Amino acid sequence: RRGAAATERDEGRAEAMRRCWSAFVEFVVRWGMSSEVWGVGARSGVCEALTRLACRRDDEGDGEDGEGTSYKPPHARESDENIAMCEKDACDLRAGACGALGALARLNGKALHGAWATMLPTSEHQLREKSVSTSLVKVIACDSSAKVRGAAANATMALFEGPASRQYLAIAERREAATSAGANGAASSSLAPGFGARVRSFSALSTTLGDMVIITLRALLSALSREKNAQCARELCKAVAALCDAAPFDRFPRDLLRETVDSIHAKLVHLSAETPSDRSTIQSALFGALASALSARGATRALNEYLSSDSSSSMIYRMISHAKGEVAGSRCEAFSVLRALVVHHTGAATLIGDELRELFPSAVCASGADDRVCQASARLLTDYLGSVSGSGQVRDDDEVDFGMIANTPALPSEVLRAAWTNAIESQLPTCALHKSALTRVAGLNVLTRVNSNVLTCFGSDVRTLDSLLSMPHSVLSGSHESVPAVRAAACRALGFLIYLPCVNLEETAAALLIAAEDVSKSVKIPAMWSLANLCAVNATRENRLCDDTVASLAKVLIASAAEQGDKVRASATRGIGHLIAASTFDTSHEWLHKAAQSLASCLTTGNAKTQWNACLGVAALLQNDSAMDVGAYWADFIVRMLLLLVRDAKNFKIRLHAAAALAVGARHERLTLAYVDSVSVLTLSLEALEIQSTAFESQSAMDFKYKPALICQMTMTLVSVLAVARVDGAIGDALKKSHAITLSTYQSLRDYLDGGSSDARVVASFKTAVPLVNKAIFDTSLNNIVANLLATQPSSSARALADAFGALAFSFSHP
Predict the structure, then answer these.
(1) Angle between helices 437-445 and 484-497 (to 10 degrees)
(2) Exposed e or buried b for every residue in 534-553, given b needs 16+ CB within 10 A?
(3) pTM of the model
(4) Is residue 111 classed as helix, strand or coil in its secondary structure?
(5) Which member of 33, 331, 404, 707 has the lowest number of beta carbons within 10 Å of its beta carbon?
(6) C-alpha distances out from residue 688 to 192, 711, 740, Å
(7) What is the 3-state secondary structure (H, E, C) of 448-494?
(8) CA torsion sign, 725 to 731 to 735 to 738?
(9) What pLDDT shows up at residue 622?
(10) pLDDT in tens, 343-374
(11) Residues 6+ away with beta carbon under 8 Å from 55
């Protein structure tokens, strides 16, 4: 009876403990989803508690026998059924703790960065089963339950997902190989050889993060090689992929990525023993992990030699074999691995060019393959041509500089020409005629990889280049294409091809004007981006668009700048600025007034990109003498709006462009009524930037990236403003109030002009500031400063200040 009572008490205690922990896990998840701000200590404490719970063995208790349990006689021990039930409950509890950590990481991963030390290991010894240390990776390495291991792998993946984790890991490094041995000189038998990291009494954050990455990655690979459960193996592959996406492998030993690729490939080789269902599940995840490893940061340097050697041929040809297989899903995943290979490892891609051609659309689509496979084939063609042409991956966020996106081609000119000729004559027509809209889209995206290297290899073959241009024109000019995504791809392709010297601007403008009126916003966004590029090219051509076409473009751009979509407004505003810069105005140009009003509206409304594009447009307006002759009354209003942005805008890039536009206005003497205010705002803004260590506490890291450039641009603007000959006592008063910062900025600019500046960021920022200031303008500005300081009855301090400014001049002597 006493034994039975003791058993009931033990069972009750264990059940109460499980209920308590379950309630804690549920509470933590709900707390994380609330808007309440967590303290640093609370986050670390919660993460540590959940990690300890995830590592908690079912036999842990309050015993005093040294093993955490108390002795129970045979008659007091539980039945097999009760033991199984307790083990299931304990597994559910540990898996719930891992799930809670994963949920917290997905809700606000950045908030958990300070608690990574409680969840990730920094030493191989921490992963041993008898170690007192706890971590999610230890659960993966040691837990007997596949459910718990899978939950821990999923939580580990959540820690490394997202841009915040990539930014945090950007400083991680470990230059030497991380090795550690046990007391007998041998590595732990449960881990891969050479596994571990050197332990120090103190490590910098970068080194600690580096140890976390190396230990975690090798533990995941070691667990993956042993894992028998398909679902758990899938989660491990996802964790490996997330870590490869986040970690800066260019700051780690080169062998680390090779080890990762070899481990994944070894797992692929041994999948034949799995059941078809498990093999499909694991293989899909392994392909994803392999693609992430091949495209990781630093993978090109780390794997270039390896992938170009015979050592990797079996892995590459295995991917090609899978891409030629029968199962559509497996083929698409193999295509994604090959795409990562050709984008990031051009040397290896050129070695297998003949094999890759068998995977291009003309061969794949003719075989009657699934639509998804045909699309993957077209995307592989796009990446291959871009890689061997030197254009790689392209973006359409800003203006495309056609000459700048071309790197050295990977193929000789004749071979490159043959590759593009085959694409134009065979591959692209196959894509254009395919029944799948996504395949047609992927075919049009090939045109975005055309660059100056492609033009060079074709030489004077205008016919071939014209056939390239005809593809997007046929989509936009005809009425047969009903899918918006295809029309949008055609607009985007024209936005890149517009920089070709053989492009007929009038025909292209007509096609894009039709697309700009499309009812689908997905078409209107790339159409407006391409129209802005068209306006930019028009400003550089000798044979420009006719007045009627310019008026039609202006009408569409002005109407689009008033819409609610920020992407459309940003492109429209950029296009208006280029149109103004390329035009000569008289009273017959009615659209100029509406364009000026549209730019003024966009200066203070819309997203940041819309506002700084409006600043560029305003600069073009202030610089165009014919435009200001027609509407000189705009000048004061626009200048004062620019001053508001320079003083009050929280985005540093907006302030930078506003200051640049103000400098253009000063050079063209547009500051007549706002001259004194311009000097005052610029000096006070420079003073605020200089004396505050963090100019605005709410600024993002991207804003602070532009801080040196903003200071240099404001300095250039101040010099340009003060170079205008004007003597006013109010200007002298403004200079006296902020003489310290004005002297400092002028000294910095003088050092740059004299070639004595040693700060690379300052030199680069002054080089990009507009308009450029030379020594003559600098001395003229100093001359005017001295004249303003001595304008009224000068005191001794004013004379001393004038002497200080005069001493900065290159060739100047003041009275």
Answers:
(1) 10
(2) bbbbbbeeeeebeeebbbbb
(3) 0.85
(4) helix
(5) 404
(6) 56, 10, 12
(7) HHCCHHHHHHHCCCHHHHHHHHHHHHHHHHCCCCCCHHHHHHHHHHH
(8) negative
(9) 94
(10) 999 999 999 999 999 999 999 999 999 999 99
(11) 94, 134, 135, 138, 139, 142
